[in-house]
Amino acid sequence: MLTFAVVGFGSRGQMFGRLIGRDEDAKLVAIADPIEGNRKTALTEFGLPAECCYPDADAFFAQGKVCDAVFICSQDAQHIDMAIKAMELGYDICLEKPAATTIEDCIAIRDTANRLGRKVMLTHCLRYTPFFQTIKKMVDNGDLGEIVTLNQTENIAYWHFGLSYVRGPWRNMADSSPTIIAKCCHDLDIINWLIPSKCTAVSSFGNCYFFNAAHAPAGSADWCVDCDPKVREKCLYNAYAIYPDRVQKSLVGGMARLKGMDIYSVLDGKKDVIGRCVFHGDNDAIDNQVVNMVFESGATAHLTMTAFSQECYRLVKVHGTRGEIYGNIDEGLLYFTEYGKPQRVIDVNESTDVDLHDGHGGGDVFLYRDFVDYLTKNSPSMTRTSINDSIESHVMGFKAEESRRLNGKVMEL
Hints:
Blueprint: E1 2-7, H1 11-22, E2 26-32, H2 36-44, E3 53-54, H3 57-61, E4 69-72, H4 79-88, E5 92-95, H5 103-116, E6 120-122, H6 130-141, E7 147-155, H7 158-166, H8 179-194, E8 199-207, H9 229-234, H10 239-249, H11 263-268, E9 288-295, E10 300-306, E11 313-320, E12 323-328, E13 333-338, E14 344-347, H12 363-376, H13 387-405, E15 411-412
Parallel strand pairs: 1-2, 1-4, 2-3, 4-5, 5-6, 7-10
Antiparallel strand pairs: 7-11, 8-9, 8-15, 9-10, 11-12, 12-13, 13-14
Helix pairs in contact: 4-5, 5-13, 8-13
């Protein structure tokens, strides 16, 4: 039986904990998290004894090697230290994306894994969705001919961006990671995976367009609690309305830390950044960004990241010399046209027994299964994202951010 620990037991860590719990050949033996509510969840919902629920990663690592592998689901900037410590203790790792917050730290994790012979797999779970796997198989089979261009859009959702990237852990890029890395390393990985050629250059534009004092409504205040009630009631980002509503629906991204919290007391007392006005905060997260990419084959790709949509979803369209395919991952339908023939609709929901609403279009389930296979059988995998594989798309993201800061300068990879 495989034994696992989870370092960082927020929404993502608990998701992996549930997948471990469903696996009769695996067992969760420890967690580490500084948030008391998350440790209580490990006790009450996951049945871990108190002595196996550590208040931080250092306390867990101080025990030495206590299981086979570790899921590291902490904040981006913590990955480098935790990953190095885990590998030095002998752990194989499933590491949340992004691997780290700088190119240098990503390379350090890769080189340490290779030096020590550790297995480190990144959570690029979109690769594992039936939606993107179907596209990949059709690309590899030649159904679209040669891939000429690819367009992808990451619609973050206005409420998610406000909660996670303006009032959440990723609001300050120096303390977390560039927004294009924090939110879109999934998308860059997909683009790099689908186009069978190496990316050679990128350029990018973007800014913090909306969430700044210039867009603050008249009568607004630095904190929601101090805002003119008439102004607050009309605001899309009214913390008193949006947080209680969204906590009931989903604990995505920066929402996880609110579990078990008396939200109204926190807002009234100005006890957390969740109560700050989105227009008067200290955020510099980029709310709109475009990235252009060119590949060795001559193929091109374009990624749009936007905070301004109703819901979180991704759109993709792949153009080949023989056909095109496009779709919305949340819809679960792909529209394929072989040029000169009628369009064919492919329902990816029919291709799997996994609930496609169960974490990233079903991708989390398949990723967990592949990590288990990686640790045990190490079977060939079309989708496995080891640290060696993941460096390329991470570099694309960091170079895109460098280009954005240089007003769109073309960056060679």
